[in-house]
Amino acid sequence: MDFDFSAEQLAIRDLARELFEKESPPSRLRELWSGAERDRSVWKALGQAGLLEITDPVDLVLVLEEAGRAALPEPIAETLAVAAPVLGEAGSDWLPRIASGEAIVAVQLGGAPFVVDAGDADLLLLERDGELHALPRDAFTATPVGSDDKARRLFAVDARPGAATALKGAAGVALDRGAAAVAAVLNGISMRMLDMTLEHVKVREQFGKPVGTFQAVKHKLATAHVRVESARAAAWYAAFAIGAGLPDRSLAASVAKVVAAEAEAIANAEALQCHGGIGFTWEHDLHMWMKRGNALEASFGTAAEHRARVAAHVLSEQTDA
Hints:
CATH topology of the domain at 171-316: Butyryl-CoA Dehydrogenase, subunit A, domain 3
CATH architecture of the domain at 171-316: Up-down Bundle
Oligomer: single chain
Helix content: 55-70%
Low-confidence stretches: none
Shape: globular
Structural class: alpha+beta
Strand order of the largest sheet: 1-3-4-7
CATH superfamily of the domain at 171-316: Butyryl-CoA Dehydrogenase, subunit A, domain 3
Strand content: 5-15%
Number of strands: 9
């Protein structure tokens, strides 16, 4: 059995990396941090490239890693990994509009207090009392709230769901998809922070030597690298389990989110430690990835919440035995 990604999947990853680097360079992130308006042309460019047609979790997982690597300020995880499958299962006619880059979908699940990009969304996928609802723009209002990551805009939503907006589909499965997707994005963020740090320690000198030659620095980066690579494998399996509808998909999604959030927190801390104070200054790009990682650690459930899900699963199996 071949457990590797196909040549086509790797080619899609390379396409995504090239496009994200072109459409979302650090200079654009800085503009958004400074209050620039959202440019929908970026979302349309993703649609023109065919990336917004991808809904299979395994095909999507490497694209989501690249979104994290670029700190892409677009709701690609929410729209493609969560909303598109739900809408597809419900027979919605929104999928062509999403695929073309015409429509953006915001997502609010699991009691999340704020919604990413709701102010720019054409549709809101909402969970209320365990039911999923799809609300068009005239059925909800979005009020901006402050965010530590100013390129990832948050909104408080006042929604008016009803019988006409209800969808078929389990909210728990949607949450699994979101957790697994954000795990992949977190892994991409971690990889980018480690890449930045590796380049920095090669040129930053102390006592006449690059600091990357010091054993303590090597240990820090090696430990973070191992944790991130393990988290990537967990996210890949979660994507496979969800796509195949395996019985352990919820468990796999929770494990992926826990280990990705923990690996990102380690990579975040070690990257800052190895950069020193410059890593958190406005002049250096690292802080934008650090902020994005911090923001996503709690997205679609915190590590503590997902540990509780894992514990409940383990205890349930012991009781059944």
